[in-house]
Amino acid sequence: MAHPAQLGFQNAASPIMEELLHFHDHALMIVFLISALVLYVISLMLSTKLTYTNSVDAQEVEMVWTILPAIILIMIALPSLQILYLMDEINNPHLTIKAIGHQWYWSYEYTDYENLMFNSYMVPTHDLNLGDLRLLEVDHRLVIPMESPIRILVSAEDVLHSWAVPALGIKTDAVPGRLNQTTLITSYPSLFYGQCSEICGSNHSFMPIVVESTPLKHFEKWSKMMISS
C-alpha cells in the first residue's frame, strides 16, 4: 500500500511490476543525463563570448543533434516494447476471474468454479476493526493463489471504471459491454490494495480493491468454504 509523503512507486509484488520499476529507473537516468547536458550548454552559452554568429552551416552539430536523439529513443523504445509484450502475454492461466465494476463497488466471479461469486464493498469507517485501513478495506477480498498465473477479465455494468492495483503493476479499464483482460502473478503472500482509477461518479473514491495472495492450500480451503456457504 502507499504511505504518507511517498515519492516513488510501491514495492514490486509481481514480475511485471519489477520490470516496470527497472524501466522507470532506466528512463529516469536518461532524463537526468539530458537535463544535465542542457543545463551545461545553457551555462556555457551564458558565460562564454559568442563567436561565429554569422555561420549558417555546421554539419558536425547537425549530425550530433540528429543521431544522438535517435539513439536515445531506441534505448527507451526497445525495453518499453519488451515490457508491453510481457504484459499482453497470457499463457495457460491457472485461474480466470471476472471483475465487474458497478456504481460503486466491485463484483468478482471465479469462472473456473461453480457458484463462486461475490460483491466487494468498502467497509464503512464506523465498522472498521483495529488496524484496518480507512477507505481501503473491503468486506470480501479477492483471494488468489500465489506464484500462479491469474487471468483477470475486467468489465463494467454501468459507467467507465478502472481496476488498478499499483503493487502488481495492473491498471485495466472497465468498459460497459466490453471485456478487457490482464494477467498477474504474485511473488509472495500478502495484501495488495488498489482503487478505481477512472472517475465514475460521486462515490468514485469509495470502491477500493483488495487482493489477498495466499499459498495454494489456503486458497483451496477458502474456495471450498465459500462454495459451501
UniProtKB/TrEMBL annotation:
Recorded catalytic activity of this chain's protein: 4 Fe(II)-[cytochrome c] + O2 + 8 H(+)(in) = 4 Fe(III)-[cytochrome c] + 2 H2O + 4 H(+)(out)
GO molecular function: copper ion binding; cytochrome-c oxidase activity; oxidoreductase activity
Parts of the chain that traverse the membrane: 27-46, 66-87
Principal location listed in the UniProt entry: mitochondrion
GO biological process: ATP synthesis coupled electron transport
Protein's cellular compartments: Mitochondrion inner membrane
Note on how the cofactor is bound: Binds a copper A center.
A single Gene Ontology CC term: mitochondrial inner membrane
PROSITE patterns in the cross-refs: COX2 (PS00078), COX2_CUA (PS50857), COX2_TM (PS50999)
Domain Cytochrome oxidase subunit II copper A binding residues, every copy: 92-225
Membrane topology: Multi-pass membrane protein
InterPro entries: CcO_II, CcO_II-like_C, CcO_II_C, Copper_CuA, Cupredoxin, Cyt_c_oxidase_su2, Cyt_c_oxidase_su2_TM_dom, Cyt_c_oxidase_su2_TM_sf
Span of domain Cytochrome oxidase subunit II transmembrane region profile: 1-91
Cofactor(s) it depends on: Cu cation
Role this protein plays: Component of the cytochrome c oxidase, the last enzyme in the mitochondrial electron transport chain which drives oxidative phosphorylation. The respiratory chain contains 3 multisubunit complexes succinate dehydrogenase (complex II, CII), ubiquinol-cytochrome c oxidoreductase (cytochrome b-c1 complex, complex III, CIII) and cytochrome c oxidase (complex IV, CIV), that cooperate to transfer electrons derived from NADH and succinate to molecular oxygen, creating an electrochemical gradient over the inner membrane that drives transmembrane transport and the ATP synthase.
Alphabetized NCBIfam families for the sequence: CoxB
Family: Belongs to the cytochrome c oxidase subunit 2 family.
Record protein name field: Cytochrome c oxidase subunit 2
Organism of provenance: Takydromus sylvaticus
